Amino acid sequence: MTAFTASSPDKLRVDIWSDIACPWCYVGKRRFETALADFP
């Protein structure tokens, strides 16, 4: 099990790697943006 430690408890950094030729990357990006809109 890996422990997660963050410098700030109220922030999370998300790095997204995608392939412009992959249609699933676009689907994932759109779903991520939709989920992110639910947070302040």
Descriptive key words:
mainly alpha; single chain; 40 residues
Layout of secondary structure:
Layout: H1 23-36
Low-confidence stretches: none
Mean pLDDT: 81
Note the main sheet.
none
**Content of β-strand:** under 5%
The global form is flat
Q: Helix segment count?
A: 1
- Find the structural class using helix and strand composition: mainly alpha
Over all CA atoms, what is the radius of gyration?
13 Å
Number of strands: 0
Helix/strand order: H
**Percent helix range:** 25-40%
Distance between termini? 30 Å
Describe the structure.
With 40 residues, this protein is an all-alpha fold. The chain is built from 1 helix and no strands. The protein has one helix at residues 23-36. It is flat. The chain starts with 22 loop residues before the first helix and ends with a helix.
Short recap of the structure:
The protein is mostly helical.
